[in-house]
Write a structure and sequence with these properties.
It contains three helices and no strands. It has 94 residues and is an all-alpha fold. The relative contact order is 0.04.
């Protein structure tokens, strides 16, 4: 390599090294988009005012389970399946 080529490489590297820190400031759009996203959803893990999505799903599962069990009890009461028949003359042990 000649001295002239070496000097050109050094000048190019110096300019690139000086330009790189300034180029980092140009990419402010990504941080602005992140800030906008945070402003739109300050609490992204919350599903309602007081519950996370997991809490909501757990509450819904418990509610559905209890409703189905209560419906089965209502069905048994409606068709008189929850007690013995009173038409028999003999007592039926329970």
């Amino acid at each position: 390599m000649t001295a002239r080529t070496t000097r050109r490489c050094l000048v190019g590297l110096t300019l690139a090294a000086a330009w790189l820190p300034m180029a980092g400031c140009v990419w402010g759009d990504a941080s602005e988009n992140a800030a906008r996203w945070i402003r739109l959803r300050p609490a992204p893990e919350m599903y309602t005012l007081s519950l996370r999505k997991t809490d909501y799903k757990n509450d819904y599962a418990i509610l559905w389970n209890e409703d189905v069990r209560m419906m089965r009890e209502d069905f048994q009461r409606f068709w008189y399946l929850d007690r013995q028949s009173r038409l028999s003359l003999y007592p039926v042990p329970r």
